[in-house]
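Posting here for the record, re: guanosine-5'-diphosphate.
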Amino acid sequence: MSVDVILGLQWGDEGKGKIVDYLADQYDLVCRFQGGPNAGHTIKIGGDKYVLHTIPSGIFRENIINLIGNGVVLDPITFIKEMNVLDKSGIEFRSRLLISRKAHIIIPTHRYLDKASEAAKGAAKIGSTLKGIGPSYMDKTGRNGLRIGDIDLPDFKSRYNTLKEKHLGLIKMYPEVDFDLEDQETAFFECIDIIRGLRLVNGEYFVNNALQEGKKVLAEGAQGSMLDIDFGTYPFVTSSNTISAGVCSGLGIAPNKIREVIGIAKAYCTRVGSGPFPTELEDETGEKLRRIGMEFGATTGRPRRCGWIDIPQLKYTIMLNGVTQVIITKLDVLDSFEEIKVCTNYAYDNKITEELPFDLVGVPIDPQYKTYNGWNTTVDMVSTYDNLPQLTKDYISILEQHLQTKISMVSTGPERHKLFSL
Ligand code: GDP
Ligand code: IMO
Ligand code: MG
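Prediction output follows.
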């Protein structure tokens, strides 16, 4: 069978977790293919709210296998904390949670380095989540990393020490920051012991065998395409390939196995951390979006920057990912806006264009907007497309026309059931 992909089309936090949880029961396997605990995927079921960082968002669906793929960087400490939350909630998941032996490990000094390196950058900082993502992917590509499969090697501890010593050498180059290494190291090895008792697999064989047996696979992305290491707003990006190409290298599946690429976008736009954001609203309207949308980071609690939806940006990421359908989330957040703006073009370098410049960081963009009437009523209780206010339907079809891509579903609230097909 084939693989479908769910990924973010903006700067992350588009509502991927909710959509993966909702659609997961149509699949046999849900697999995270990149990123690490920088991700925060929120799922609301009944009155309960969960935030997943490493565990795939299919975990709440009975009988569905969840795989943490080789493209993920796993922090044993945050991962075990997540497992403990699920245990406390009485969710049976251990037999359904698998980790690829080729996934890389975040060790405490990766977080230490992240913190020190961000402190050294001062005002030019990336605004990292400080979860050790950059340093751990650097060790992966630098061929120094430790992988989950290594924890069973007799010399794991000595490999760990070699890597730690290398990090401690590097840390001397940076300003001093607070970090309780001893404490973190104790917790780290306790968590490694727990991980030894979990289901560690050769993920690439596991997924391909499942496909051969006719199973359906859903690949879950983290972050958003504008944070992609190659195509995002470099250097204000994360350190992995967040686009659909990352599915192949992050799970070990061939491109011809990918069928649907489902791109998730908010009805407006947000970004957390530093870096360019052409449609950002640093005014009362931006403040209103943040307040109604409750736009505060699921991982760090930081306020998210807010702005209008950006068509050139979305067309760029639809192109990069080969998106076959778009799901629009948080439509309800626009309920009380008299006017809704849509950025349809960028003006820069004396031209008006839909094309992003080489480097969004260096080019001041003047976003060109079209203004539409808001629907000024709540869509909260609506559960079919037909029952949406006409102006809401108009907004969806305006987006569809601009994006030239089918909008297959819309989400009108954080809860699992507040999602419907068009
Ligand atoms: P992710 O990282 O893409 O999974 O998204 P986050 O969980 O970081 O952020 C999305 C936030 O929006 C979470 O708090 C969700 O509960 C919430 N959310 C998701 N869909 C909707 C929606 O349609 N309406 C509203 N109001 N909130 C939503
Ligand atoms: P989910 O999966 C939003 C941002 C950080 C920072 C930059 C680099 O929940 O959508 P890193 O910790 O990777 O070194 O941070 O990327 N960032 C996210 N923003 N959602 C995320 O994940 C993010 N993961 C990282 O804020 O600007
Ligand atoms: Mg998030």
